[in-house]
Amino acid sequence: MAEPTEKTAAKSSLLRSQAVAITATTTDFLVTIGLKELAKLWYVYSNATGALCGATVSFLLLRNWAFQRNTTKWHGQALRYVIASGLSLLLNTGGVWLLTELLDIQYIVSKTLVAVLMGLTVNYWMFKHFVFK
Questions:
Q1: 55: closest CA among 32, 90, 92, 81?
Q2: Which of 27, 35, 41, 126 makes the best surface tag, with the fewest CB within 10 Å?
Q3: Residues 113-130: pLDDT tens digits?
Q4: CA distances from 42 to 21, 27, 56, 110 (A)
């Protein structure tokens, strides 16, 4: 079997990172909806907590599976991940609030739109080129 090229390795990390995004997003949504609908907490708090849980799942899977950077010391990765995730959390929560409050869109629809937009524009790039470089 031939050695993987840089192009096939990049394609593999992209596909794996998208699988991680789906897993982390599922975690995020389950926690958000559970806190909002079952625990009756404010949707903004529920969204932030869901995003934090999704980020934790994401870091572990990206590091160990998608980008396979588990031989590098995790401390630096974790710090960069916190920075990247903090930005993502602010953009995510702000986007959900904006769409829900200003455009009167139901929070689940807002959350879905923001999650897709963030995944396609910000998160993959930050994780590949900043966190797990």
A1: 81
A2: 41
A3: 998 888 777 888 898 889
A4: 25, 18, 22, 15
End-to-end CA distance of the chain: 27
Q: Please, which residues have CB within 8 angstroms of residue 73's CB and are 6 or more apart in sequence?
A: none
Buried b / exposed e along 84-110 (16+ C-beta atoms within 10 A): bbeebbebbbebbbebbeeeebebbeb
**Predicted TM-score of the model (pTM):** 0.70
Cα–Cα distance for residue pair 117/48, rounded to 1 Å: 17
Q: Is the pLDDT of residue 1 over 60?
A: no
